[in-house]
Design goal:
With 452 residues, the chain is α/β, with parallel strands linked by helices. The protein folds into 3 domains: 3-45 and 61-119 and 250-319, FAD/NAD(P)-binding domain (3-Layer(bba) Sandwich), CATH 3.50.50; 123-246, FAD/NAD(P)-binding domain (3-Layer(bba) Sandwich), CATH 3.50.50.60; 342-451, 2-Layer Sandwich (Enolase-like, domain 1), CATH 3.30.390.30. It has helices at residues 12-28, 50-55, 69-74, 139-150, 163-174, 195-207, 255-259, 305-319, 349-354, 407-415, 420-425, 440-451, and strands spanning 3-8, 32-37, 78-80, 83-89, 94-99, 104-109, 112-115, 119-121, 133-134, 155-159, 178-182, 210-213, 221-223, 229-234, 237-240, 243-246, 250-252, 277-279, 282-284, 291-293, 298-300, 333-337, 340-346, 359-367, 378-386, 392-399. The strands form 7 sheets. A 6-stranded mixed beta sheet has the order 3-2-1-7-19-18. Strand 1 (3-8), helix 1 and strand 2 (32-37) form a beta-alpha-beta unit. The longest helix has 17 residues, at 12-28. Bound molecules: flavin-adenine dinucleotide.
Length: 452
């Protein structure tokens, strides 16, 4: 008799797992049936593309869908849309599901269940159910943003200075709105960037026409007689916002697991083992989980599509009868703020010191191409290393076109445990349109190595 895998949540982690489980089962000869339940009407979409869809770079929501439910069904997965898992009965091996189309509730038996329920945006009380105030999480949010912008609002307020806040600020300014970004951080992105690098992000946003207000929390909104948002209270003054984008972060969706008595980690996410297994027959992957940071040796909550896809694939291999392990992360991420590419990997100086590392850091300015080339743009690289071992512990980059993906050199070095000296002398590509003779990451690492 075939084993049944029920996947709950059919986006990045869930559908990577579902497909990989079937592929592996074909290889191992396992007899596997895969059912994926999804509470919304869409599967396998790129939330990452939503700010660019709202900006108008992408015309159609369909372009953000990597694979439709029909395509997954053709591949052999029983995808059930508008179907929400409402409870997990581990003793009986059943999931309670509500079919939103028919309003009926039923039970679905499983041999294995994969929790891939993702994350939910943080919505403070003042932001709930106020017309004009929207998070940026789902394709439905993206559609609501496009509709909102079609009504020609003039002023936009973005609350939160992390990745999504910065991306939405850029988007709304590009759409011609007078845009203000408010963050409680010392600088934008200061949750995971050095303040001096965050200051460069602020400058880039300002060049893009965004007013940036730091060190401040929005705690309330003003609404007009029609109930729509009109302004937010910032430093005691109202800042106009006909539309308000919330970029306050996300929380792991773990209620099914906790309802079934499964524990969550210190950062609020599920903590599966390196095969993505929580307990017998129960697996988890993606934004509902914490991930192991290889440098700190601790689980952190880092909800990113890169990790969701990889962890889903690992879960799928194991569920299909193979053997795979999720090796952890080093904390690599990239975004854009106006004309600046913004990227990071590894620890910040604060995280490193809190973890007890003895560190040294450097920051230097260079160019993305040889200085005499027309495409040469400024770039700033910050790098952190460990005294004694010389190991590279972190790197951040803010600069013009071609700057950001250079972070992958540092990320790969960290992955392999290389020293700053190793990076400085590595054989990287050079020709004038692409780089100075010494790549900016190498210059930073060379200077860092001199200090370590
Ligand atoms: C605006 C934005 C930009 C981003 N940009 C980037 C980026 O540039 N790079 C990057 O790496 N990451 C980025 N991310 C993060 C990335 O999108 C997520 O990490 C990724 O989508 C996580 O995938 P997931 O499958 O774990 O969760 P999700 O994508 O959240 O999917 C979970 C699915 O489960 C469904 N679900 C939840 N509960 C139930 C239930 N009880 N029953 C049935 N279905 C349920 C949900 O409807 C959802 O479809 C961005 C996210 C956003 C919102």
């Amino acid at each position: 008799m075939s084993r049944r895998l029920v996947v709950i949540g059919a986006d990045a982690a869930g559908m990577s797992a579902a497909n990989q489980a079937l592929r592996t089962a074909r290889r191992t000869g396992a007899d596997l049936e895969v059912v994926a339940v999804e509470s919304s009407d869409v599967v396998s979409y790129s939330a990452c593309g939503i700010p660019y869809w709202v900006a108008g770079d992408v015309d159609d929501a369909d372009d953000l869908v990597a694979r439709t439910a029909a395509e997954h069904r053709d591949a052999g997965i029983d995808v059930r849309l508008h179907t929400e898992a409402t409870a997990l009965d581990l003793d009986a091996g059943q999931v309670e599901v509500r079919d939103h189309a028919t309003g009926t509730t039923s039970r679905l038996g499983f041999d294995d269940v994969l929790l891939a329920t993702g994350a939910a945006p943080i919505l403070p009380d003042w932001a709930r159910d106020v017309p004009g105030v929207l998070a940026v999480k789902t394709l439905a949010d993206g559609a609501a943003w496009r509709e909102l912008l079609a009504s020609d609002p003039r002023d936009a307020l973005v609350v939160g200075g992390g990745y999504i806040g910065v991306e939405m600020a850029e988007t709304l300014a590009r759409r011609g709105l007078r845009t203000t970004l408010v963050t409680r951080g010392e600088e934008p992105m200061s949750g995971s960037f050095e303040p001096a690098m965050g200051a460069l992000v602020r400058a880039a946003l300002e060049r893009a026409g965004v007013e940036v207000v730091t060190g401040t929390e929005v705690t309330d909104l003003e609404t007009g007689p029609d109930g729509r948002v009109r302004a937010a209270c910032v430093n005691g003054d109202p800042v106009r916002g006909d539309v308000v984008a919330l970029g306050l972060g996300v929380r792991a969706r773990t209620d099914l697991a906790t309802g079934a008595g499964l524990p969550v980690g210190e950062r609020g996410g599920l903590v599966p083992d390196d095969r993505q297994r929580l307990t017998d027959g129960v697996w988890a992957a993606g934004d509902c989980c914490e991930v192991l940071d290889r440098t700190l040796g601790q689980h952190l909550y880092v909800p990113l599509g890169t990790h969701a896809n990889k962890a889903g694939r690992v879960a799928g291999t194991n569920l299909g009868g193979g053997d795979d392990r999720f090796p952890g992360i080093v904390g690599t991420a990239i975004t854009r703020a106006g004309d600046a590419e913004v990227a990071r990997t590894g620890l910040t100086s604060r995280w490193a010191r809190e973890a007890g590392f003895d560190v040294e850091e450097v920051r230097m300015d260079s160019t993305t191409a040889s200085g005499y080339m027309p495409e040469s743009d400024p770039v700033t690289v910050w790098a952190l290393g460990e005294r004694g071992t010389g190991r590279l512990l972190g790197c951040q980059i803010v600069g013009g076109r071609g700057a950001g993906k250079r972070i992958d050199t540092a990320a790969t070095a960290m992955w392999a445990g290389l020293t700053a000296e190793d990076v400085a002398m590595a054989d990287l590509a050079y020709a004038p349109p692409f780089s100075p003779v010494w790549d900016p990451v190498q210059i930073a690492c060379r200077r860092l190595a001199e200090r370590l």
